[in-house]
Design a protein that fits this description.
Blueprint: E1 6-15, E2 18-24, E3 33-34, E4 37-39, H1 46-58, E5 62-75, E6 81-92, E7 107-114, H2 124-131
Bound molecules: 8-OXO-2'-deoxyguanosine-5'-triphosphate (8DG) and magnesium ion.
């Protein structure tokens, strides 16, 4: 792969006070807990990409999408990579719907985690956001 910055889209899927995380199976951030998401495809909008990636990875249908923030992350390991990542927020169409591990080669499984009791270790870019005080929940 040519060394160019790539665009990632990651989604905070919120259910009550919890957020959906899955343990990655990937050369970047293996075994760490991350949001569903992936690469922006050519011609795609942010919301479109968010809905597609969440559906492909978890089977969940989402709505009420909002843009939250963007980050610029440079990974040195396992090989140099740079991601501008768009972070979206969404809720489920149907709050009864259960996440499925549809890409078992990329994720060990999905679950809901309370924002004040997140699992360890978090995927490094997410860990940085949490440590900076970032909170994906809408102001009450
Ligand atoms: P695809 O080929 O299916 O499109 O992509 P993927 O294999 O699902 O890509 P990904 O690694 O899950 O996501 C793309 C990049 O987005 C990832 O390598 C780095 C960036 N990214 C962050 N934070 C997060 C996060 O919390 N979750 C995910 N999935 N990606 C994130 O900077
Ligand atoms: Mg992914």
């Amino acid at each position: 792969m040519e060394n160019v910055p790539r665009v990632g889209v990651a989604v905070f899927v919120l259910l009550g006070k919890t957020v959906l995380l899955g343990q990655r199976r990937s050369s970047i951030g293996d075994s760490t807990y991350a949001l569903p998401g992936g690469h922006l495809e050519f011609g795609e909008g942010f919301e479109e990409c968010a809905a597609r990636e969440v559906k492909e990875e978890t089977g969940l249908d989402i709505q009420k999408m909002d843009f939250l923030t963007a980050t610029n992350t440079i990974f040195k390991e396992p090989k140099p990579a740079q991601y501008v990542t768009i972070f979206m927020r969404a809720v489920l169409d149907d709050p009864q719907q259960v996440p499925q591990t549809l890409e078992p080669d990329k994720c060990y499984g999905w679950d809901w985690y309370a924002w004040d009791d997140l699992p360890n270790p978090l995927f490094w870019p997410l860990e940085k956001m949490v440590q900076s005080g970032f909170n994906p929940f809408p102001a009450e």
